[in-house]
Every structure is written in C-alpha cells, then in structure tokens.
Amino acid sequence: PADGKANIGVTGLAVMGSNIARNFARNGFTVALHNRSVAKTDALLDTHGDEGSFIRTESIAEFADALATPRCALIMVQAGSATDSVIDELASAFDEGDIIIDGGNALYTDTIRREKEMAERGIRFIGAGISGGEEGALEGPSIMPGGPASSYEVVGPILEKISAHVDGQPCCTHIGEDGSGHFVKMVHNGIEYSDMQLIGEAYHLLREVGGLEPAALAEVFREWNEGDLDSYLIEITSQVLAQVDERTGSPLVDVIVDQAGQKGTGRWTVKSALDLGVPVTGIAEAVFARALSSSLPQREAGKSLPSGATNVPLDTGDDFVEDVRKALYASKIIAYAQGFDQINAAKDEYGWDIHRGDLATIWRGGCIIRAKFLNRIVDAYEENPELRSLVEAPYFLSALTDCIDSWRRVVATAVHAGIPAPGFASSLAYYDALRTSRLPAALTQGLRDYFGAHTYRRTDAEGAFHTLWSGDR
Ligand code: ATR
Fold it and tell me: Is residue 204 in contact with ligand 1, taking CB distance under 6 Å?
C-alpha cells in the first residue's frame, strides 16, 4: 500500500509461519512480522529479509499499527490455548471490520466458537486449514478457509495468490461458514492416514508374500506412480524404500522402529465420524493400526501366538504385484468415498454450503494427498454434484469393477498368509455391505426388540412394531 503499511501480517514465526510469511513476500505483498519472542522475527529477517518487503514489529500494538486497514492478520501459533490468547490480544488491538485468520491446526469446534466470539466483537474471523508442510507453506500450500463469504472476498485473492496452482487454478477456495475450513482440513488429514495405511499394507504383502526386497519395491512404487495411483505419497514411498542407511548399509526402512506416531487429526476425524454416524472405516482402521503398532505390552504378550496353517497355496503368481496395486486403488476409492460422505454429513449438521467437487480441486496441489486421482473426483462431482456416494460415479464404478477380483484375491491371500491388512479388508467389507440387498441388521433389530422393546419396522407395513417374542413367555 502507498502509505507504507503492510497488506498482511503474520504472527507466530516458527517453521510454518516463517515460510508462509516468505511466500507472501515473494508474491509481492508487504508483510508485517510478529512473534512473541523477537528473536524468531530477527532470525527470519537475517536469513531471508531480502526476499521481499517485510515490516519488523516487536509488539502487538506495533503489529496492528503496521497493517493497512481493514487489517488482515494470519495467526500461525500452536493450536489450543496459545491460539486463544493470541486471538484475544489481536482483537483488542484491532478495530471493527478487521480480519483475523487462524492458519493453525485448530479443532473445528474451537473455530466455530471463536468465529462467534469474534463476530460479537465486530472482528471478522477466518479459520483456514493449511496443508503441505514446510515446503508447501513456502512454495504454495493447499488452503481451506472457512468464514463469512464477505470476509473471503477481502482475503481470498491474497490467499489464492500464495497457494499452489494446478492447471492455472489456485488450490484455495472459500469452503463455507465458520469451522468448515478446519473441518475439511481435518478430514483431509484423516484421508492422508488411510492413504498411508493402504500403502503400508501393499508394501507388507509384497515384501512378505511376494518376496520383494525394498530396492525392488522402490521400483514397483515408482512404476505405480506413472499410472492411476500417481500421487505425492506413492512417489515418496518409492524414495523412502530406496533409501539406504549410512550406518548399517541396510535399507533404512529396516532400521526404523515400527511404531507409528500421531498428532491427533486422524483421531479427531474418527471421533467426528462417530458423532455424525458416518462409517469411515478406512480412516478408523488407519488410526487404530497406528495405535496398535504402539501397543507394546499387547504386542509383547501376543508375540508367540500361533499363526495356524499359513502354508496354504498362495495365489502369488506374476500377477500378484498387479493384484496388490488394484487392491490398493479400490481401497483408496472407498476411503475417499467415506471421507466425502463425512463432509457431506457435516455440511447438513452444521449448515455449511460446501461443494465437494471444489475440495477435490484444491487438494490436487500443495497438500500431502495431492494425486492425479483427485481430477477424477472433480469430474465426478461436476457431472453430478449430488452423488450419493463416489462409488456410483461412472469412472469409479468402472474402476471398482476392474479391481474387484484382484481385491478379493489379495484380501484372501493376506488372511491365508497371516499378514494383517485391515485397510484392504475393511474397505472390501464396506464395499460388499453396500452391495448386499439384505443385511443382518434385521436380526440386530430383532434382538434389540427382544431385550429392550426397541421396536422394529416391517418390510410390508408402515409404523413401529413390537413382538411378544415366544422366548418371553
Ligand atoms: P512449529 O510446530 O512449527 O514449531 P508451533 O509449535 O505450532 O510451531 O508454534 C510455535 C509458535 O507459537 C512460536 O512462534 C511460538 O512463539 P515463541 O517463538 O515465542 O515461542 C508461538 N507461541 C506458542 N505459544 C504462544 C503463546 N502463548 N503466545 C504467543 N505465541 C505463542
């Protein structure tokens, strides 16, 4: 701006915040910088101060003064109470109509609350999910901003400019009201969990049953990355498997402790899905598989459990690699179908005007789950925005049709060989449940009516029925 003020401010200059601030500056915006401890601000200016136009500030008052009005500030501090206190400080220093964007990994219910509190104080609040890690933050992340559409009109162009771009389209769009941006980011992370779990299962089967060593597997994943599975996660799987440990000369994957960590967004996704009553089995299995890997006493206790006969003839001919690829692809389709169902349910529950096709569009670049596959989802929702499930879209129906035989063979092989494949197996169970015309839920209803008089509905008449079960007499 002509008065020498900043277009945007960033407070919280740890790794993500610093990189986003640099991204803004590299795109020609003047950026006001603030961090609780000035040392981080100065470190950023020392190393990257020449990348664009920055304004150094030491206090929130100086920060507010450096910003052109209406003010626009991005918070990149730790999620939770730190975010609350920074929001409160900013709101006190800002004027009516100014905009605060929370770019942290906030829980969507916190964002809903904060948006309401800020609206009462006349401050416009945007909860923006930002995906892409350190590199994405600097080079162009995928950004999922939620809040009033009128606020998005002000900050949208700035955020879209710094986001990743695919085919000339920004990987940033207005998601919906209040917590919708952080909700969608959360489900994105849940889907990321399931993608990684499925990749892990494919690796495990190809190694244990298929007999392929990491170097050969790196090549398999590299080839897969040239087809339908083309994605960032498959690409880096190939690189992780190819990595040799300097200290031992072994494949690095064999030196890494097999206990997966988690920061909580997968767990949040599943908790929300439980509340919404949406079966996100693919994501849930992935979260539980990480928990299981870290359940050390149980793993210790189970170490000598018998496998039973695993020497059954395994169907691991030349086509096994292709079978596993298809099992992975089909299971991935199911995991995405479930995640999109969850978003659709939240849309109804919270009254958000979310367009599912837009999400696939902005996940095509910048973020961890970026994949060619997402173009197919964009097409599917373009063709029919009201899809009841991704599985009914013609492209996915034909992909599942193409994969189903391989998928069954791979799950059967895993069971025979005693290799856990909960992602593949539960996705196939979900698929089969969708196909089944009469589910055993009828019996469940009978049992519920028997012991609790919960009543049931009949196939041939309206209303609720209760039976005097003969066992009662
Ligand atoms: P990362 O994981 O990228 O390191 P983080 O832990 O999510 O980042 O957030 C760290 C940032 O939050 C830092 O900028 C930190 O400020 P300091 O450098 O002064 O420690 C900031 N932060 C954490 N708690 C804060 C609080 N209560 N008030 C203001 N800033 C806070």
Answer: no
Q: Is 15 in the pocket of ligand 1 (CB under 6 A)?
A: yes
Which residues, listed in sequence order, are joined to residue 244 by a DSSP beta bridge?
251
pLDDT at 310: 85
Q: Report the alpha-carbon distance of residue 242 to residue 442 in Å, rounded.
A: 50
The Cα 185–Cα 103 span in angstroms is 11
Residue 56's Cβ-count burial label (10 Å; 0-12, 13-18, 19+) is: middle
Over residues 171-189, the pLDDT tens digits come to 999 999 999 999 999 999 9
16 CB less than 6 Å from ligand 1? yes
Q: pLDDT grade, residue 9 (50/70/90)?
A: very high
Separation CA 371–CA 333 (nearest Å): 12
Please state the atom number of ligand 1 nearest to the C-alpha of residue 17: 3
Q: Which has more confidence, 462 or 315?
A: 462
pLDDT of residue 315: 58
Ligand 1 mutation target, pool 36, 44, 92, 100, most atoms within 8 A of CB: 36
Q: What are 349-371's pLDDT values in tens digits?
A: 999 999 999 999 999 999 999 99
Label the pairing between strands 165-166 and 142-146.
Answer: unpaired
Annotated binding site for NADP(+): 12-17, 35-37, 77-79, 105
Ligand 1 nearest atom to the CA of residue 40, by list position:
18
The residues annotated with a catalytic role in the active site are: 185, 192
Torsion 388-391-393-397 (CA) sign:
negative
Ligand 1 centre distance from Cα of residue 397 (Å): 46
Sorted by sequence, the CB contacts under 8 Å of residue 294 that are 6+ apart come out as: 259, 260, 261
233, 196 Cβ separation under 8 angstroms? yes
Q: Is the CB of 39 under 6 A from ligand 1?
A: no
Report the separation in Å between the CA atom of 33 and the middle of ligand 1, taken as the mean of its atom positions.
14
Task: Tell me: pLDDT of 203 over 80.
Answer: yes
Cα–Cα distances (Å) from 320 to 195, 205, 406, in that order, read 20, 9, 8
Identify the band that residue 312 occupies on the pLDDT scale cut at 50, 70 and 90.
low
C-alpha distances (whole Å) from 246 to each of 237, 243, 465 are 19, 9, 69
ipTM value, please give it: 0.94
* Pair of tokens at residue 180: 């919708």
Q: Is 14 in the pocket of ligand 1 (CB under 6 A)?
A: yes
